């Protein structure tokens, strides 16, 4: 029959379904072929809106002529979204410092400073890296705060049993510094947390009874 599709171009249901169980469900967490148990809806955070041309990817042309990386017309992030992201980055800098944000985004402090001041415009890639850095540093800081609270509670309990000075000696910290940590007037740092955790391990092993 003229104009009909050749048989070898068609796929039977048996061929289609044979590998269906290997097809991941991208809309859900725990939905890959090797996963098991209940799935959960995937959380999507929108970093920015990128405007594209209505021609989309020109799928039909690419199918016959080969892949074209420039097929999709991209107009970049809208000015409103760009300003919104810069404001979010600026807010994160006020909380965590410009050095921490720049380091996590993989750019120099001077480059980030220029972007925030408006002297430079962030490229699409750099803007994406900065948005991800802001999200990541917030998550890691929340985890650090939660761990810090648990460690301080354990340290306070141990200090009440063996005495503040004795515990401070184990932690190689000044008793006044530990007292201020307990009172909340001093901020926990990672090096201090390491010392307190080490002291808790030593005291629980009986070193305080030596």
Order of SSEs, N→C? HEEEHEHHHHHHH
User: Largest sheet, described in full?
Assistant: 2 strands, antiparallel
Number of domains: 3
Strand arrangement, largest sheet?
A: 1-2
Mean pLDDT: 79
User: Could you say which overall geometry the principal axes of the C-alpha atoms support?
Assistant: flat
Rg over CA atoms, rounded to whole Å, is: 28 Å
Secondary-structure blueprint of this entry?
Blueprint: H1 13-18, E1 28-29, E2 40-41, E3 50-52, H2 59-65, E4 74-77, H3 79-96, H4 98-105, H5 109-117, H6 124-162, H7 164-171, H8 175-183, H9 190-204
Antiparallel strand pairs: 1-2, 3-4
Helix pairs in contact: 3-4, 3-6, 4-5, 4-6, 6-7, 6-9, 7-9
If you had to describe this structure to a student in words, what would you say it looks like?
The chain is mostly helical. It folds into three domains: 10-44, no CATH class; 45-76, no CATH class; 78-209, no CATH class. The protein is 57% helix and 5% strand. It has helices at residues 13-18, 59-65, 79-96, 98-105, 109-117, 124-162, 164-171, 175-183, 190-204; strands spanning 28-29, 40-41, 50-52, 74-77. Helix 4 crosses helix 5 (109-117) and helix 6 packs across helix 7. The N and C termini lie far apart (96 Å).
Features:
210 residues; 3 domains; two-stranded antiparallel sheet; two-stranded antiparallel ribbon
């Amino acid at each position: 029959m003229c104009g009909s599709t050749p048989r070898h171009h068609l796929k039977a249901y048996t061929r289609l379904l044979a590998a269906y169980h290997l097809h991941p469900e991208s809309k859900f967490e725990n939905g890959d072929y090797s996963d098991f148990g209940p799935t959960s809806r995937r959380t999507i955070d929108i970093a920015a809106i990128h405007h594209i041309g209505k021609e989309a990817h020109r799928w039909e042309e690419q199918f016959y002529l080969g892949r074209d990386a420039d097929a999709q017309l991209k107009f970049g992030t809208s000015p409103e979204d760009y300003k919104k992201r810069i404001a979010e980055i600026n807010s994160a800098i006020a909380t965590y410092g410009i050095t921490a944000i720049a380091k996590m985004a993989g750019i120099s402090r001077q480059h980030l400073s220029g972007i925030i001041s408006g002297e430079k415009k962030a490229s699409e890639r750099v803007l994406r890296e900065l948005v991800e850095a802001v999200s990541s540093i917030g998550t890691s800081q929340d985890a650090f705060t939660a761990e810090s609270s648990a460690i301080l509670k354990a340290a306070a309990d141990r200090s009440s049993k063996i005495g503040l000075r004795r515990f401070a000696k184990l932690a190689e910290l000044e008793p006044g510094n530990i007292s201020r940590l307990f009172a909340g007037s001093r901020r926990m740092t990672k090096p201090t947390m390491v010392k307190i955790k080490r002291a808790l391990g030593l005291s629980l092993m009986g070193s305080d009874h030596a």
